[in-house]
Amino acid sequence: MTLSEILDSFKTKLSPSKFIDSLEKKASFYDESQNDSEGNTLEENLKNNPYLNSGNNSGNNSAESSNGIKISKNKDEPLIKLTDVWKIYQMGEVEFAALKGINLEIYEGEFLIILGPSGSGKSTMMNLLGCLDIPSKGTVSLNSKDISELDESELAIIRGKMIGFIFQSFNLLPTLSTEENVLLPMEFQEENRQIARQKASYLLDIVGLSNKKGNLPSQLSGGQRQRVAIARSLAVNPPIILADEPTGNLDTKTGDYILDFLDELHAREGKTIIIVTHDIELVRYATRVVYIRDGEIEKIEKCQKNECQKNEHEELK
Ligand SMILES: Nc1ncnc2c1ncn2[C@@H]1O[C@H](COP(=O)(O)OP(=O)(O)OP(=O)(O)O)[C@@H](O)[C@H]1O
């Protein structure tokens, strides 16, 4: 049973699945979150969750906006396509080209790492990939639809349905609890409140934070906040996850947990994962690495996991 199936159908009961078995292994990483307020372990919480069910829905990685943009299952078509993309920032009289003629096609099911040193244009590119910004020149297409043709409300719909963001700059809302932060994207999608709460509860379970639902972000560690951000990014079950330095500021152990979790979403759920980072260590998770420098693609390397050799690219650091 996939995460998609679980999230798509939160109504009848089901015994634990293989997916849950694997999540249990992940969850057991965190000693601190083993027991909830009632003394239940996370494993018990997962097994006893009454809302996990097989349902009749098949996993559904598609989404459609009012403008007809649809993520299809056609893996031959790029999911996201950048064609001669320029981003020029205007500072008074001075122009600065942060991206200079980027051409890139991203396919469904990729685990893409965009790697480059500070100032190379990674975040600028991420903002374009996430439909948070439009290019100064060139086109960004999502499933063959030019995003420049969409107005702000249409872009917001696309973002909400298709893209889960794990951005450091996308802070959790400080006055909302952990649970409320995870509920937020579902409220924007007009989810039934009761079902939304069930999903939020499930998602907080799988990131090992079932006992922190009422905490404010300020009452969480950096790694816990990042895990809330992951739960929030999965709330509407988007086909694409965009992560900007997802392990920045985290210790190695917590960073590995976050990456393993994303790796699992990629492997088991077929999510398209796109990460921008300066951290060469992350390339071991990638199916493809895009090396960027001074706003240009230096090279693109296709790789099987673990085949991208970090020593080859030490100079990027
Ligand atoms: N709003 C802006 N106005 C002017 N210049 C900008 C603006 N945003 C970014 N830049 C410049 O564009 C270039 C690329 O910035 P960007 O944030 O995309 O780099 P980055 O690779 O993400 O860097 P880092 O890893 O340090 O976050 C930098 O030289 C930066 O100074």
From TrEMBL:
Keywords: ATP-binding, Cell cycle, Cell division, Nucleotide-binding, Transport. Residues 48-68 have a biased composition (Low complexity). The keyword DNA-binding does not apply. The keyword Cell cycle applies. One of its GO terms (molecular function) is ATP binding. It comes from the Archaea. Gene3D superfamilies: P-loop containing nucleotide triphosphate hydrolases. It holds the Pfam family ABC_tran. PANTHER family: ABC TRANSPORTER ABCH.1, IMPORT ATP-BINDING PROTEIN. This is Cell division transporter, ATP-binding protein FtsE. GO terms for cellular component: membrane protein complex; plasma membrane. GO terms for biological process: cell division. Residues 80-316 form the ABC transporter domain. Residues 30-70 are annotated as: Disordered.
